[in-house]
Amino acid sequence: MSQLGLQQLSSPEDADLDIVFVHGLFGNRISTWSKNGVLWPKQLLSQDLSKARIFTFGYDADVTKRNLNEEVTKGTMESHAADLFKGALGDGTDNPSLITDKTRGMVFLGTPFYGSPVASWGKIISSMVNIIHATDPQKVKDLDQKSEKLHILAESFASALHQRIRDKKEIRVAFFHETKKLHGFLVVPERNSWISGFSDHSSINADHSSMTKFADEDSPGYQSVLAAIRKVSASPEDEASPTSKAAGFVNNNWGEIKNQVLGDQTIHGGMTFN
What pLDDT digit, counting tens, does each position of 135-156 carry? Predict the structure, then answer.
């Protein structure tokens, strides 16, 4: 079965919210979000957010080439984004503004806005791997902490978020970073995982790969992410309600956030290594 494109995981008749999960490098639309056979967006989140249509999106995100002559991707990242927009709209319309105008927020898990120190290390590894399995050097280079392209993208994203606030069309954002090392490295350190000026950021007590995988509803990581999604999906009316579950978080220590609600999102993403 293909791992590319948009796959619907839940379809309630009275849906009032769409949530789209987007994996990162080395991931795919199923394994990135699965642990012990549990695809948590489908088996856990759909129970807690019963009125949400839940989707997972897959694209070719490997930094290797299938062989020495074949490029890893069949299109640019821009074309993958276009595929996501068209799939979400359901009618093939190429008009991203229809999606962005209705986006309430985003939650990011281990996303390297300002690069990864592991990227430089990855160049050394990829040079050895190239002997038997070619890698795409530009993709590895673009993840380096000194990547000018990444810094420009991060600052442009921050500028766009601030503009939405000025236009009274705020897209809320929440950020999570890992606390445990993967193969001896913090793949995305805290300082690289969030945009300055937006205070909703916290940690998940896991490594870069495990931070997106939850096996049961009692997992503190799942409770934290659920809280984030609830906050980002809350309407202004919900937030004004005294019984609302929407609440903020700033620099929470692990374990203190389990019973809080953090984040605000309809699109959920992050870079993962499987």
Answer: 455 555 556 666 677 777 788 8
